[in-house]
């Protein structure tokens, strides 16, 4: 039975998780260690506050809906006998979600082995208002439980995580490798399921995540939940549009669909908090970097690419699946370099990566509400790119590339897609 060790390496990390927060990545403001620790502490407690404010926030939405309903003429109200009942049900579901969120907070206060965030200077019992931005993040985090830790998320995991895991197993098969010595890094690990699944296969796996919303929640599920499907969340109550039935809005999911504590006793599985490019500076230290719905979170995706190149061991592989929905697009005062996949691919090859597997059309969803009248499908790119075992060039001049033979037996063709 193995839990998951959480370490924090948040110093110097971006703190633009909350609007109006302290983004000291972009401007590279230099703080003293004391200032940094203080900002970090404030940030930590602000996210805790957001978890506590959830019920009030949903109640406000419900009250608004109730006011709208009561503003209707009596004859119109009479046509809608179920509306107030549904709103009352939403309130009950929000109360229940709040209990789970309280449990998450309760287990977060001392979650890092190497950092303590002290006490909140203000009255800990007081519920302080949070921004809409933070509430949206919290609601997305609740939906992330569906994707990562519920039976309802199985189909989505099969399209997003399975191809990555299959490639890891193909590239580092257990009959040829001592897989416990194969190290896999999962940056932007979310609620940790992909990283957990990789560790479950016996690989040494570390998830890296920067959002406290995600970190608090993954710590809870990975270290505090044992009984399968023992807990309930109502992830869809915040969706007031595109419901076919009112009861769709209040339907529950159960989690975790599997006991997260069921890793082999000797599994090497950990999570590190912090900004991927700040935390991972040790060159040539990973056999595999697996990114899922991650690379478009970058201000500059080439910075992520550089980091991955640096930290991969010679012969190591980068496996990626996801769209290019640039997170900082249209955000005022934020650096955001929005490259096409074509441009990213060119840059990868120039840097020296050898693209061994490539599929430019993998259809996936992300925290999908399968009963909603509005559903998004991402037509994702998927690739496996290798850092050659022997580096013969400096990445500056294409004509000087001498491509080392990939360690994989043969490049694979996926569907009808382009292959290098
Ligand atoms: C779209 S989510 C994908 C989560 C997970 N990989 C999945 O497929 O469900 C992107 C994740 O990357 C995290 N993230 C964004 N920028 C990051 C950074 N610089 N370092 C580490 N994590 C980051 C976000 O907090 C978020 O949890």
From TrEMBL:
PANTHER family linked to this entry: CARNOSINE N-METHYLTRANSFERASE (PTHR12303:SF6)
InterPro entries: CARME (IPR012901), SAM-dependent_MTases_sf (IPR029063)
Family: Belongs to the carnosine N-methyltransferase family.
Primary localization: cytoplasm
Record field: compositional bias (Basic and acidic residues): 411-420
Keyword tags: Cytoplasm, Methyltransferase, Nucleus, S-adenosyl-L-methionine, Transferase
The enzyme's E.C. designation: 2.1.1.22
Name of protein: Carnosine N-methyltransferase
GO molecular function, one term: carnosine N-methyltransferase activity
Gene source species: Menidia menidia
UniProt-listed Pfam families: CARME (PF07942)
Keyword S-adenosyl-L-methionine: yes
Function text: N-methyltransferase that catalyzes the formation of anserine (beta-alanyl-N(Pi)-methyl-L-histidine) from carnosine. Anserine, a methylated derivative of carnosine (beta-alanyl-L-histidine), is an abundant constituent of vertebrate skeletal muscles. Also methylates other L-histidine-containing di- and tripeptides such as Gly-Gly-His, Gly-His and homocarnosine (GABA-His).
GO annotation terms (biological process): carnosine metabolic process; methylation
Ranges for region Disordered: 395-420
Superkingdom of this protein's organism: Eukaryota
Subcellular compartments: Cytoplasm, Cytosol; Nucleus
Gene Ontology cellular component list: cytosol; nucleus
């Amino acid at each position: 039975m193995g839990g998951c060790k959480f370490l924090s390496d948040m110093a110097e990390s971006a703190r633009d998780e909350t609007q109006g927060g302290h983004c000291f990545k972009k401007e590279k403001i230099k703080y003293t260690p004391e200032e940094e620790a203080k900002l970090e502490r404030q940030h930590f407690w602000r996210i805790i506050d957001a978890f506590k404010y959830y019920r009030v926030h949903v109640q406000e939405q419900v009250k608004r809906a109730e006011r709208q309903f009561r503003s209707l003429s009596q004859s119109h109200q009479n046509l809608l006998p179920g509306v107030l009942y549904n709103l009352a049900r939403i309130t009950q579901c929000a109360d229940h979600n709040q209990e789970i969120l309280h449990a998450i907070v309760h287990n977060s206060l001392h979650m890092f082995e190497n950092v303590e965030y002290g006490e909140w200077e203000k009255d800990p019992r007081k519920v302080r208002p949070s921004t809409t931005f933070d509430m949206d993040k919290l609601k997305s985090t609740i939906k992330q439980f569906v994707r990562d830790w519920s039976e309802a998320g199985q189909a989505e995991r099969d399209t997003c995580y399975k191809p990555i895991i299959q490639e890891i197993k193909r590239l580092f098969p257990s009959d040829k490798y001592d897989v416990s010595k194969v190290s896999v890094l999962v940056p932007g690990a979310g609620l940790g399921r992909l990283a957990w699944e990789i560790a479950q296969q016996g690989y040494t796996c570390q998830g890296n995540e920067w959002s406290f919303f995600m970190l608090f929640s993954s710590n809870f599920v990975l270290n505090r939940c044992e009984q399968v499907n023992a807990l309930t969340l109502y992830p869809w109550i915040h969706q007031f549009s595109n419901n076919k039935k009112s009861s769709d809005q209040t339907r529950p999911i159960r989690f975790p669909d599997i006991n997260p504590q069921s890793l082999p006793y000797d599994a090497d599985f950990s999570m590190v908090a912090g900004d991927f490019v700040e935390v991972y500076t040790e060159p040539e230290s990973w056999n595999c970097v697996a990114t899922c719905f991650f690379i478009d979170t970058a201000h500059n995706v080439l910075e992520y690419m550089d980091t991955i190149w640096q930290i991969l061991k010679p012969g190591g592989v980068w496996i990626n699946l996801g769209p290019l929905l640039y997170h900082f697009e249209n955000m005022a005062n934020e650096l955001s370099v929005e490259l096409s996949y074509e441009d990213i691919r060119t840059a990868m090859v120039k840097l020296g990566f050898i693209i061994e597997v490539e599929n430019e059309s993998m259809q996936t969803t992300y925290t999908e509400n399968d009963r909603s009248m509005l559903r998004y499908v991402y037509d994702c790119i998927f690739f496996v790119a290798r850092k050659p075992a022997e580096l013969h060039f400096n990445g500056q001049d294409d004509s000087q590339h001498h491509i080392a033979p990939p360690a994989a037996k043969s490049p694979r063709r996926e569907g009808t897609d382009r292959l290098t």
